[in-house]
Write a structure and sequence with these properties.
The protein is mostly helical. The protein contains four helices and no strands.
Length: about 90
């Protein structure tokens, strides 16, 4: 990961010397600076965590139930749902 010339944000943290050594060794084995290695690794892991926390996985059975519920046209919103939609429309304007 090339160093960006307009990088202006920082993360500072302390870690044990043995952990720093492992990071330095891994970075060197990949031909990267410690900073580039750390940024790439942190970003990759952060994206994985965000993805894991924002994606919902359904079993085939649950997916079929969900899709069938979306396809139903005979349902009307109840009073609470209608009120929530009105409130949302007011707030979004």
């Amino acid at each position: 990961m090339p160093t960006s010339t307009n990088a202006n944000a920082r993360l500072n943290f302390r870690l044990r010397a043995d952990l720093k050594q492992v990071i330095e060794t891994a970075a060197a084995q990949l031909g990267q600076s410690v900073s580039d290695f750390a940024v790439a690794t942190l970003v990759r892991q952060a994206r994985a965590v965000v993805h894991e926390q924002t994606v919902t996985y359904l079993s085939t059975r649950d997916r079929d139930i969900f899709i069938a519920a979306l396809d139903r046209t005979d349902l009307r919103p109840n009073k609470k749902l209608a009120a929530a939609a009105k409130k949302y429309k007011r707030l979004v304007k």
